[in-house]
Automatic annotation (TrEMBL):
<comment type="similarity">
    <text>Belongs to the CCDC124 family.</text>
</comment>
<feature type="domain" description="Coiled-coil">
    <location>
        <begin position="112"/>
        <end position="151"/>
    </location>
</feature>
<feature type="transmembrane region" description="Helical">
    <location>
        <begin position="87"/>
        <end position="107"/>
    </location>
</feature>
<dbReference type="GO" id="GO:0006366">
    <property type="term" value="P:transcription by RNA polymerase II"/>
</dbReference>
<keyword id="KW-1133">Transmembrane helix</keyword>
<dbReference type="InterPro" id="IPR010422">
    <property type="entry name" value="Ccdc124/Oxs1"/>
</dbReference>
<dbReference type="GO" id="GO:0005634">
    <property type="term" value="C:nucleus"/>
</dbReference>
<feature type="coiled-coil region">
    <location>
        <begin position="4"/>
        <end position="51"/>
    </location>
</feature>
<protein>
    <recommendedName>
        <fullName>Coiled-coil domain-containing protein</fullName>
    </recommendedName>
</protein>
<dbReference type="InterPro" id="IPR054414">
    <property type="entry name" value="Ccdc124/Oxs1_C"/>
</dbReference>
<dbReference type="Pfam" id="PF06244">
    <property type="entry name" value="Ccdc124"/>
</dbReference>
<dbReference type="GO" id="GO:0003713">
    <property type="term" value="F:transcription coactivator activity"/>
</dbReference>
<keyword id="KW-0472">Membrane</keyword>
<feature type="domain" description="Coiled-coil">
    <location>
        <begin position="55"/>
        <end position="90"/>
    </location>
</feature>
<dbReference type="GO" id="GO:0030496">
    <property type="term" value="C:midbody"/>
</dbReference>
<keyword id="KW-0812">Transmembrane</keyword>
<keyword id="KW-0175">Coiled coil</keyword>
């Protein structure tokens, strides 16, 4: 019988404590929710204020608008430059190829003029050489010659 009394008393104490905890939690919870809501609203307000740029009466909320305001132009910003990347690459590639072709044509004509001018002298100096051997000698001479524009640039740099 005593055990039943103790059991009943423990149950009542447990129920009373549960009610007290529930009332404490219910009372504290709305206040925390209100504080959290106020904190979130304050963060949103600060974020909007930080993202907004005002210059001479104009307001910008995005980076592109801010750039337009700061540049002072209202031109449309290129949003997809990668679409023209291949075309730009091909234009620059073909420009380089064209420069190389023109340069090689100019060099070839200079080499031919050099060979025509110096071949008779080489034939006199080396009468037993074949034409291919003479051209090899002329090529070596061309590489050292001041008439060679590539060599002239190197000579100018080494003279400094």
């Amino acid at each position: 019988m005593e055990a039943l009394k103790r059991k009943e008393e423990n149950r009542k104490l447990a129920e009373a404590e549960m009610e007290r905890l529930a009332s404490n939690a219910a009372a504290a919870h709305p206040q925390k929710e209100a504080e959290a809501r106020l904190r979130i609203e304050e963060e949103k307000r600060l974020k909007l204020a930080a993202e907004k740029l005002e210059v001479e009466g104009e307001t910008a909320t995005t980076v592109s608008e801010a750039i337009q305001i700061l540049e002072g132009t209202a031109e449309e910003i290129d949003k997809h430059p990668e679409k023209r990347m291949r075309a730009a690459y091909l234009v620059s590639f073909y420009a380089v190829v064209l420069v190389v072709i023109i340069t090689s044509l100019a060099l070839n004509s200079l080499v031919q003029a050099f060979e025509e001018a110096h071949l008779p002298r080489m034939k006199q100096e080396h009468p037993t050489y074949r034409l291919s051997q003479l051209k090899q000698l002329l090529k070596k001479e061309w590489q050292k010659s001041p008439e060679n524009p590539l060599n002239a640039k190197l000579m100018a740099l080494s003279a400094k």
